[in-house]
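haha ok so turns out i had the wrong file open the whole time. this is the CORRECT one, sorry everyone. sequence first:
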Amino acid sequence: MSSRPVFDHQRRVAMLIYPQVASVDVCGPLEPFGLANFLTGRRLYDPFTVSVDGAPVPVAGGFVRLEPSCSCNDLPDRLDVLLVAGGPGCFAAAEDAVLTTWIRNLEPRCTRIGSVCTGSTVLLASGIANGQRIATHWLEALRLTSNGSGGALVESDAIFVNSGKFWTSAGMLAGIDLALALIEADHGRHLALDIARFMVLVLRRQSGQSQYSPQLMADATEDPKIRRVQLYIWENPTARMSLPELAKLAAMSERSLSRRFKDVTRTSISSYIEDVRLGLARRLLETSNQSIQSVAMNSGFGTAATLRRVFGRRLGVSPGVYKSNFGTDNAELSAGVTDAIQMDLESVINGKSVW
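then structure:
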């Protein structure tokens, strides 16, 4: 166990780590606090890492072990910020009674407390975030929405959330956004902007994390009539779909179809159609060289203006910006490669993937 330097009157920023944390979740958010000291020539912050027992912690991927600055027993009486790091080890950490007990015991001693990425899972397991608004990685937001969020309100599109003393961030590098926001709250926008410039970052992203998450097709319901409508929408996204036509397809009245569709899919028919078309438009922007107008036509939106409105409302970016961020010139992808390796969403969401 390493010894902890003597604490002074600097703002103390602790990152709680555990086996299989993501190294960027630990180092990324702590870096801006160190840069605040470096760029000002003043010891504004004391950033450090802490584990339950002070023993070295292997990171996800196994390429390095992090030696924490101290153990939980060595922490001072007061902490200005305590953040829980994320990573694939979060699920095991959430079941570690010793770790979650420490979080509960430390919370009253912290001016601000929160998490980075899937560190939210550990924070929620401790019970201290009940009733709070939180941000987390968009995949973890999907899991929490499906399995229950432990009494917290998950803001799935947020890059970071400040809910009173609770500060939480979305996936991985969003922890840097969180750190910059904390520094801005402490010392003003100018210093936070200087740090962002030094790190070659923007101080405020223009949109949330929805632009990074894929639009997943809802599982086809077991209701054969609703499933028939779902599949028709997916197979005919450019068709002009009216409620009377869909009701006829389902052999139901319009009122019954609308009510039943919302009951089993948790969304309206119009929203479902927009979801399908948006997902198709995103794939076309990511994997083809089609113009914005062609993408609008081929995804069912009809006009580029409509496509821009939907992208702005749903993703917070224009189709052009989205294409520049996620588009590819790969001809094989444009043609549709059938044996490409893709993300195993189910395994990742359920914590069964390999880092």
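Confidence is low (pLDDT under 50) at residues 1-8, 215-219, 330-340.
again sry for the mixup
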